[in-house]
Amino acid sequence: MDHVKPKFATAWLGGCSGCHMSFLDLDERLIDLAGLVDICYSPILDVKEFPEVDIVLVEGAVANEDHLKEIRRIRQRSKVLIAFGDCAVTGNVTAMRNLFSIEDVLNRAYRENSLVVSGVPLENGIIPKLLDRVLRIQDVVTVDHFLPGCPPSPDAIHDFVVELLAGNTPTAQGRKFGS
């Protein structure tokens, strides 16, 4: 009888993609991981709709209405949700926007620093409506595990996922100062 592999996904909300870059830095261990799980959704796959999954790593904070809808959909369709990286866990750099008004942020990005665009491209949903405040994932949905780091190291990601797949409760800690 064939063993059914757990369905595994990664998702990216408001962040820099550094956590996914660190995930890709698993290098040959990605092949080992692919032998343990069915990777069925990720920014590196051409899948349009988030499927039902057993485990998902979610990178980034919840910064706009699209992120809000997506994290709720992800939570509904995932058995185990992991806040992946410091933006997901604490808001981190993405939440620095909370120090300013949305109008000031958009003006700075699209008017003051632009040589080409004459205004904020809000038509046709080009820019999703920003939330009043950037939120951590746990501010919106229940998070089962936290994997901190900016970004988490490939070793930390590997060890965390392998422990989880082995049926253990993984532990993750942030980096210590000076390391």
Can you put this structure into words, describing what you see?
The chain is α/β, with parallel strands linked by helices. The protein has one domain: Rossmann fold. Helices cover 31% and strands 20% of the residues. It has 6 helices and 7 strands. The strands form 2 sheets. A 5-stranded parallel beta sheet has the order 2-1-3-5-7, sandwiched between helices. A two-stranded antiparallel ribbon has the order 4-6. The longest helix has 12 residues, at 65-76. It is elongated. It starts with 6 loop residues before the first strand and ends in a 14-residue tail after the last helix. The mean pLDDT is 91.
Give the neighbour order of strands across the main sheet. Answer: 2-1-3-5-7
Percent in helix: 25-40%
The overall pLDDT average reads 91
Helix/strand order: EHHEEEHEHHEEH
Query: What is the name of the CATH superfamily?
Result: NADH:ubiquinone oxidoreductase-like, 20kDa subunit
Distance between the termini: 46 Å
Count every helix, treating DSSP H or I runs of 4 or more residues as helices.
6
Quick overview of this protein structure:
With 179 residues, the chain is of the alpha/beta class. 31% of the residues lie in helices and 20% in strands. It has a single domain, classed as 3-Layer(aba) Sandwich (Rossmann fold), CATH 3.40.50.700.
Topology readout:
Elements: E1 7-12, H1 18-24, H2 29-36, E2 38-41, E3 53-59, E4 62-64, H3 65-76, E5 78-84, H4 86-90, H5 102-112, E6 130-135, E7 145-147, H6 154-165
Keywords:
6 helices, Rossmann fold, two-stranded antiparallel sheet, 20% strand, alpha/beta, 179 residues
